[in-house]
C-alpha cells in the first residue's frame, strides 16, 4: 500500500500569535496525504507522443477508463468556454462536495463555511489510493480548445516544478534527492535536453531563483534546511556546491506518523524577503513538537532576520506571490479524521501576522472537537481562507498564470495541483484546478481544469503535484503517480 505524503501548515505573529507560538506543539497522529512508497521502484508512463483534445460537455469518466458519473452528478454542466460558449453553473453546498465522478473540465464550485457538516457526520475512512499504470490510450481531460501532451517521462516522481527566467524548467525529484533541468519544453518534438542539475539533497521540494530577473542563485528547500547553488543563465548543472542558508527548519519524515516533510519557498515581489513554509508534524496535536511547525517563516534572502509571518496553517505545501499585488498566497492541506467533508483544504492570501486556526479551530471559529474548550481567546481571531476546496483533496503546488498563449480570461488566475484524497470514502482531488481571481481578489469559486486520472474501478494513474508555465505560455503539470510531465496548450475553440 502506498505511503501517505506528509503535509504542513502556517504560522502567525502579533501578540495573539506569540501566545500561539508559546503553546503550540505536536506529534503526528496518523494522517498525511498518500504518495507512492519512496522505496518502491517507480512506474513510468510510456514515452509516446501522447496528445489529447478538449473534453466532452459535462462530467464523465476518465479518458479510456469507461467510468461514468455518479447518480446525481451535474450532467448538464458545460465546460467554461474561452471561445464564448456556455459556462458551467456554479455548484454550491452539497453539490459542490462531489467526488471524482463529478469532475470534468469547466465544472465550477464554490464552498462556504456554512456548507460544512458537523464533525463525524460520516465515519473517518482509510481509503488509500492504488497507483496503476496509465490505461492504454488514456489521457487527462482538458477544456474544449486545449490539448494535453506527454512532455517527458525522463523524471522520477517529479514534485515541485518552476521555470527559470531563461525558460528552463527545474524539476525537483524529492525521493531521489536531486533536481533536474528540462530544456526546450515548448518544442513540438519534446524537450531538447533533460539534465541533472544537483544531487545529494534531503527530501527537497521548494525551489526558487534569486534575484528574479537575472538569477545568481538557485535556492532549494530541503525538509530541514534551505541551501543555494551558484547559477548563471543557461546552467544545466550547478557550478558550485550547495551553500547552507538556513539550518533551523524542523524536518519531517515521509511515512504515516512522520510529519509533513515538504518545504516550499518564494521571494517577495521586491526581492527583499524570502518566505519558507513548514507543515505540522501531526494531524492535530498541540504538544511541544509543533513549536516551529504549521507556519510560514519570513527571512531576508541571506537566510537571516527570521520572523514568523503567519501561523495556524496545517500544511502550506505551495507558495506563490501575486504578480501585481505582490501578496503572498498559499495552497493548504487541512486536517483529517473528522469525516468525508471536513476539513476543506484551501487556497488563500496570507495575512502578515494572521492566525488560520490549526490545531484548535478550523475555517473560522469552528472548534476542533479533539481540543474542546482550548484557547477561547483566539476564536474570534481565526482568519477564514479565501477559497475552500473539497475536503482531503491534498492541494499542493500553485502558480499564477501570466502567459498569453491561453485565452485572456485565464491570465492572473491561480492554478493549483490537487494530489488526491485518502481520508474520504469516495475519492476527490487527482486534478488541476484554477481559482477565480478578479482584480487580484479571489471570488471563492474554483474550476476543474485537468481531470480524468482515476479509473472506473477507482484506481489512480496520475497524481498532479505542481504547475508551471513555459516561455510560450503552455501549462506544465508534474505527475508523481505517472512519473511524467504533462504539457497543456490552447489550440483554439472547436479544435
Textual characterization of the structure:
The structure is a single chain. The chain has 495 residues and is mainly β. The chain has one domain: Neuraminidase (6 Propeller). The protein is 2% helix and 30% strand. It has one helix and 32 strands. It has one helix at 14-23; strands at residues 4-5, 33-34, 51-52, 90-92, 108-110, 146-152, 158-163, 169-173, 178-183, 193-198, 207-210, 217-221, 226-230, 243-246, 265-267, 274-278, 295-299, 307-311, 316-321, 328-332, 346-349, 354-355, 361-362, 366-367, 387-388, 395-400, 414-418, 431-438, 441-450, 464-469, 475-479, 484-490. The strands form eight sheets. It has a six-stranded mixed β-sheet, with no helix packed on it. Strands 3-6-32-31-30 form a five-stranded antiparallel β-sheet, with no helix packed on it. A hairpin with a 7-residue loop joins strand 17 and strand 18 (307-311). The chain is globular, with a radius of gyration of 21 Å.
